[in-house]
Write a structure and sequence with these properties.
Blueprint (H helix, E strand, L loop, with lengths): L1 H32 L18 H17 L3 H20 L6 H4 L2 H16 L7 H4 L22
Helix pairs in contact: 1-2, 1-5, 2-3, 3-5
Length: about 150
């Protein structure tokens, strides 16, 4: 059973990345464009306001890049930092625990993106199409991504 789960791990990680990135991008789109219910009761964040507008741009761009698997580690690092800032600057002063201060989404997004910084994009990422890594011999790939040698 664990062999099959290990084989499916890159695909599960890829699906996790796509879902988390999509949800983050939707949050940014709602704040910037008022779609999907908008932000703050149906409105948009005023352009250029600190930190709301910049956070929304990071959410839209970072979420889209993560969902597509383009520059996943860098986009996830910036997105994670943005959510850590949101949690500690906006939510944590009201109360220590996320359930009490309304910061559950910030905390979960922060940790999910931090996980992607360390794990990478998994399968189904567009980075794989644009990178020069993993030539015919796979010499630049990490050991867990190399195809097993076949002897005849």
């Amino acid at each position: 059973m664990s062999i099959r789960l290990n084989q499916a791990q890159p695909y599960a990680l890829g699906l996790f990345r796509i879902v988390v990135g999509f949800l983050f991008a939707c949050h940014g789109a709602a704040s910037l464009f008022g779609v999907l219910g908008g932000s703050m009761g149906g409105g948009t964040v005023p352009t250029g306001t600190w930190p709301g507008w910049y956070a929304a741009v990071i959410q839209l761009v970072g979420g889209t890049l993560v969902a597509l698997g383009l520059g996943t580690r860098a986009a996830a690092l910036i997105s994670s930092g943005s959510m850590a800032y949101a949690y500690f600057k906006v939510h944590q002063p009201a109360s220590l625990f996320p359930l009490q201060n309304g910061g559950e989404a910030s905390a979960v997004f922060c940790w999910a993106f931090l996980l992607l910084v360390f794990t990478g994009s998994g399968a189904l990422a567009l980075d794989r199409f644009f990178s020069s890594r993993g030539g015919p011999e796979g010499e630049d790939r990490p050991a867990h991504e190399k195809a097993p040698a076949v002897s005849v």
